[in-house]
Specification:
The complex is a heterodimer of chains A (about 325) and B (about 525). Chain A is mainly α and about 325 residues long. Helix content of chain A is about 75%, strand content about 0%. In chain A, helix 6 packs antiparallel against helix 12. Chain A is globular, with a radius of gyration of 21 Å. The chains are: A mainly alpha (about 325), B alpha/beta (about 525). The structure holds adenosine-5'-triphosphate and magnesium ion. Magnesium ion binds next to helix 1 of chain B.
């Protein structure tokens, strides 16, 4: 970045110049999410009464803290060139398992059971993708159905909702205002370090960038792939578990379509859907942007009912995703 | 370090088949410590396959690989690397989106407290790449580097690994003379320290300069092995091709550009092309039947000129006209419609479509011309495809074979065929014979010549000076993005070109595009 003053002399040493236009496209694609987030927050603070209050801000943050972890998980998977459609179901399953565990063994089981199941489902999905070379899209779609099915089985077709006693250790875990926010912030921070500063993170970028080259360069491609789906499955289940603790129950009909919102947040954050490039902080911006928009829609369109807000939300997502892939393509040319 | 006979790596009776092809048949090879061992053969002879078996990318059907006299059977490249075999594969094998430094150290990043020490990595990378004559900010994405520089990164990476054996599959095919020299210094240093080097190349001069021994392959078999000093060029070539050397001479490119009429009407006119930091006021006329060579060192702007002409590179100003008609829209698609075809330098990136067959890859660009009322005329297609397969000696089991299964050089020929069958008015060729074996090279040059005779205007870019001199009617020399010289007629000589490239002012007549077309 320090060599922006590219004179032809640098070309002799092996550089190829980027045109200003290419640079603008690249910048928009990578930094568009954060910039739009700041703009929207500013505009909303000015024009929407009641938006800029600490009460509303904490509603937005707490309400999205655990869901944001799905986008976090998805960021890893997408950077590696894959996709995980099962995170929404795993989120719901994690919550139900936790509440079930609470009723059948106590706080310890409530915490460990979702982690174990998330891990196992993740490893199975990862192995099918890495070793049996099945398409991530298909495998995780099956995972989505499997997790839903398991959830239905535990909850007697969704008719039983397990409750978490409010005085238990487990209920304390995910409740409050600061705990959810700090948990999310901490996990995002750790994730950022893992992605940029560990060999595992580098391997993800390499595999997403070019799987074949990564293999020839000696990256443990298959192992890394299994690991990333394991990470994603576990993280999704943990997010669901924490959410159940906060809601003090294992809600069964939660999480439908969350994987799509998560993917949208990741893409808005500048991560390329085909893999090989992306950032955690971009995803954070993507999550927040979607949360803010949803909040505004809720306030201003509530009289039209939830279908209207779904409609606006969907349209917004479509526009953003189209724009992002357009920019990513321009950047790739 | 090695056993008494000095053999580090030994292949014994190795065979390998792919569906429909016997790529290797009972191949044996010995690689000794401290030697530079050339592996040569026509496109598709099996060189890359042999390498991939030695490094665990493929496993042999029969035979064994021994490292330091112990049998090994690697199942992935990582194991080979860990055992001390470092490889530069034929395809550029780095991650374009990742930074230069991260590519250089992937899997071996320097760490501090368990975390990658990015600052140190970038510092080390910069210092290391300087040794290889590359001076760039290592935090930049790899794909922002020129192809040659990317290749140097890949070489630096391979050498960085603590290895006993370094295998290089056509490392110089995208390098410039200067970079090749740097590489040779590195190779000499490696060999002196006792490392065994297996070196694949189609460039004969290189082999004679740095190799000690040579093994020749043909049709998946080893047909001979000799000390480099004991075999001359013609013997070597005829051994590779399995034909008489004299036969080749007659095919050769000696009379390449002679006896052809260059007509006076300009087909491709380029005026005042400016691309920021890259090209300055480049003007270029190519007439009917003329082959104009574009000379220059790395970074002089040769590929950029071609890319700017077809609109793949955005030019701030300047005009391009075909047969006097100015191109209004500037994009590769518009250029094709106007009759300009370009064979790009980076085939991997903008070239073959790996999933499609050889036939589909060849006719891809010509489809609109080959179809009537939206329906593709199969018979015409087949005719064209078999003409080019024959003419360019493309080694395929059938036209329906997947192009990604072809050897590197044969993929190259497929691409060349794609642009040739477009029947363009002007053809821009960026390194048309890179990675193509000596026999087919003469064919390609002959074909260019023939096309020019039929009235095509050709722009030829080649870092092979011999090819440039023999193949061009005149040579326009670029330096730092500017046209600095124009060699015409009898002035097209080795000496003059070298002088022009090296910016010697002693020859200063006709410094701008001249009018003559003798
Ligand atoms: N994965 C594969 N599937 C099918 N056929 C293959 C595969 N890889 C190589 N081949 C075939 O094996 C033969 C040898 O190919 P190889 O790549 O070893 O040639 P090469 O000597 O390296 O040629 P070049 O000089 O063009 O690089 C070719 O006929 C090629 O089509
Ligand atoms: Mg090869």
């Amino acid at each position: 970045m320090s060599s922006q003053t590219t004179a032809p002399a640098e070309d002799v040493a092996g550089g190829v110049t980027e045109t200003p236009r290419e640079r603008v496209f690249a910048l928009l694609q990578r930094q568009g999410g954060p910039v739009v987030l700041v703009l929207v927050v500013l505009l909303a603070s000015i024009f929407s009464s009641g938006f800029a209050s600490s009460g509303n801000f904490s509603t937005i943050l707490v309400g999205n803290a655990y869901i944001s972890l799905l986008a976090l998980a998805e960021t890893f998977v997408i950077i590696s060139g894959g996709i995980d459609l099962s995170v929404g179901s795993m989120f719901a399953l994690g919550g139900v398992l936790a509440a079930w565990g609470m009723n059948h063994g106590g706080s310890g089981v409530a915490v460990l059971l979702p982690i174990a199941v998330g891990l196992v489902v993740g490893v199975v999905q990862g192995s099918l993708i890495a070793y049996a070379r099945l398409a991530p899209f298909i495998v995780t779609l099956a995972g989505l159905l499997f997790a839903r099915g398991l959830l239905q089985a535990i909850s007697n077709e969704g008719s039983t909702t397990y409750l978490v006693p409010g005085h238990s250790v487990f209920a304390f875990l995910g409740d409050g205002t600061w705990r959810p926010i700090l948990t999310a912030v901490a996990l995002f921070a750790i994730a950022a370090v893992v992605l940029v500063r560990t060999r595992f993170g580098q391997a993800l970028f390499a595999i997403g960038g070019s799987e074949n080259a990564a293999l020839l360069m000696g990256v443990r491609v298959r192992r890394t792939k299994v690991f990333v789906y394991m990470l994603s499955g576990t993280l999704a289940a943990v997010a669901g578990m924490l959410n159940a603790s906060r809601l003090q129950s294992g809600v069964t009909n939660i999480g439908v379509g969350y994987e799509l919102t998560a993917i949208a947040a990741v893409v808005i954050g500048g991560t390329i859907l085909t893999g090989g490039s992306g950032s955690i902080y971009g995803t954070a911006a993507g999550v927040l942007l979607l949360a803010v928009i949803q909040n505004l829609i809720g306030v201003h369109l509530s009289q039209y009912g939830s279908s209207a807000s779904d409609l606006v939300n969907g349209a917004f997502l479509a526009v953003v995703v189209v724009l992002q892939s357009f920019l990513a393509r321009r950047r790739a040319l | 370090m090695s056993d008494s006979s000095g053999v580090v790596l030994r292949l014994d009776g190795v065979s390998k088949s792919f569906p429909g092809v016997r790529a290797l048949r009972d191949v044996s090879l010995e690689l000794r410590a401290g030697e530079v061992h050339a592996l040569v053969g026509e496109n598709g002879a099996g060189k890359s396959t042999l390498i991939k078996i030695s490094t665990g990318v493929y496993t042999a059907d029969e035979g064994e690989v021994r490292l330091l006299d112990a049998p090994v059977s690697f199942t992935d490249p990582l194991q080979a690397q860990a055992a001390g075999i470092s490889t530069i594969y034929q395809e550029v094998n780095l991650i374009p989106l990742m930074s230069v430094a991260r590519n250089l150290y992937l899997g071996r990043e320097p760490r501090r407290f368990g975390l990658v020490d990015t600052a140190r990595m970038n510092r080390d990378a910069r210092a290391r790449l300087r040794e290889f004559g590359i001076d760039v900010n290592p935090a930049r994405p790899l794909r922002s580097l020129a192809l040659g520089a990317q290749q140097m990164v890949s070489i630096a990476r391979a050498v960085e690994i603590d290895a006993r054996v370094v295998i290089m599959d056509e490392p110089t095919s995208s390098l410039e003379k200067r970079e090749v020299e740097t590489l040779f210094t590195v190779i000499e240093r490696l060999a002196a320290s006792g490392i065994a080097i297996l070196y694949v190349s189609h460039r004969m001069e290189e082999l004679y300069r740095i190799c000690d021994r040579v093994t020749v392959m043909r049709d998946g078999q080893v047909v001979g092995s000799s000390a480099m000093a004991d075999i001359d060029r013609l013997q070597l070539v005829s051994m590779m091709l399995g034909r008489d050397a004299s036969d080749l001479r007659q095919h050769g490119s000696t009379a390449f550009a002679e006896g052809r009429d260059v007509e006076d009407d300009v087909v491709l006119r380029t005026q005042g092309l400016n691309v920021r930091h890259t090209l300055e006021d480049v003007s270029l006329d190519i007439r009917r039947g003329e082959v104009v060579g574009l000379g220059g060192l790395l970074g002089a702007g040769r590929s950029e000129t071609a890319r700017a002409i077809v609109g793949a590179l955005h030019a701030e100003s300047g005009e391009v006209a075909v047969n006097g008609k100015r191109l209004r829209r500037r994009s590769p698609a518009a250029a094709i419609r106007a009759g300009i075809a370009m064979l790009p330098e980076d085939r991997k990136l903008d070239g073959i479509v790996p999933g499609l067959s050889v036939r589909e890859n060849i006719v891809l660009a010509a489809l609109p011309r080959l179809s009537r009322m939206g329906l593709v005329q199969r018979s015409k297609q087949d005719e064209i495809v078999s003409f080019f397969i024959d003419r360019l000696q493309i080694k395929v089991s059938s036209p329906a074979q997947r192009v990604s299964d072809l050897s590197g050089g044969n993929q190259q020929k497929v691409l060349l065929a794609r642009w040739l069958c477009l029947h363009p008015k002007a053809l821009l060729l960026d390194e048309p014979t890179r990675g193509i074996d000596v026999g087919a090279k003469a064919e390609v040059q002959g074909l260019i010549e023939e096309l020019a005779r039929d009235g095509l205007a050709v722009l030829l870019i080649s870092s092979d000076l011999e090819e440039l001199i023999e193949g061009s009617d005149r040579i326009v020399v670029l330096r730092e993005g500017k046209v600095v010289d124009n060699l015409t007629g009898d002035a097209v000589t080795d000496d003059n070109l070298m002088r022009a490239l090296a910016a010697d002012p002693s020859r200063s007549d006709d410094a701008q595009p001249a009018k003559d077309s003798s």
